[in-house]
Design brief:
By secondary structure, the protein is an alpha/beta fold. It is built from nine helices and nine strands.
Length: about 260
């Protein structure tokens, strides 16, 4: 049987270009065939590893923005803070009403008030990422965008022992790069369907309640803020109003599954 050629040369004395060594007859053939098989196996292993990495990355980056819930549910979300005085009042109302919410906290404030973050988690609320300094991420140098997400996640992890799964860019200002950098930190971006503009604190509590309920719709993700008295005044009526309309309260975590 004709032996296997090495670099196009049949064994007798064959010069192996890859190693610079001379191989002889059948030992050469066996040795070189083994080397060739190893190289092929290494290449296959490399491609499989690359495919696994790409598949893992696609699982993270392919997550769509979370913009609405399902069915007749509503998720109350609070941005900013934690701010002493306001958070305690909100937590008391939620506890009395038997509602769990999602708090998108600012990392630097979380670091200053770890007890408030623990209180949120202890009551069963979801603590999420609202960046560390609350800057407009679309206006930052690119190298700072990931840092905003990462520092906030690390601040939350240092308090609760685990990183958040969800993030919300300040002001809802984002682009594809912002979303990509959030995904790199393991965060899924959450937006909203109902924004009454409570951050301006220009409406009385009853007016804010009516404004929220007038826009109530299935799958609502309600955007409220920590730091305004009108929000605290409106919250009991908002909860009661949604319930009268037949809504069930859920967290962002429950929507995402």
């Amino acid at each position: 049987m004709q032996p296997y050629p090495i670099n196009g040369i049949f064994p007798g004395t064959a010069y192996v270009a890859e190693t610079g060594r001379a191989c002889y007859h059948l030992p050469c053939f066996a040795y070189c065939r083994e080397s060739r098989e190893k190289r092929v196996k290494r290449k296959i292993a490399g491609w499989l590893l690359l495919l696994c990495l790409l598949a893992t990355a696609s699982d993270v980056y392919a997550q769509p923005l979370l913009e609405r819930g399902k069915g007749r549910t509503v998720a109350i979300t609070f941005d900013d803070g934690p701010r002493p005085g306001y958070v305690e009042s909100i937590l008391n109302i939620l506890r009395e009403k038997g509602v769990r919410a999602t708090f998108f906290v600012v990392g630097r404030y979380a670091s200053e008030h770890p007890g408030l973050i623990r209180a949120m988690a202890d009551d069963g609320h979801v603590v999420a990422n609202h960046t560390f300094y609350h800057n407009n991420l679309t206006a930052l140098p690119r190298e700072n965008v990931y840092r905003e997400w990462r520092l906030c996640s690390e601040a939350i992890e240092s308090i609760l022992g685990s990183k958040p799964r969800f993030g919300r860019p300040p002001g809802g200002q984002f682009n594809s790069f912002v979303v990509e950098q959030a995904a790199g930190e393991g965060l899924r971006i959450v937006l909203w369907t109902n924004n009454p503009g409570d951050y301006s604190d220009t409406l009385r509590g009853e007016e804010l309640t009516r404004k929220v309920l007038a826009k109530a719709a299935p799958g609502d993700i309600l955007l409220l803020h920590v730091g305004t008295l009108s929000t605290i005044e409106a919250l009991p009526g908002i909860i009661d109003g949604y319930r009268k309309k037949g809504f069930i309260f859920v967290t962002v975590e429950e929507i995402a599954g």
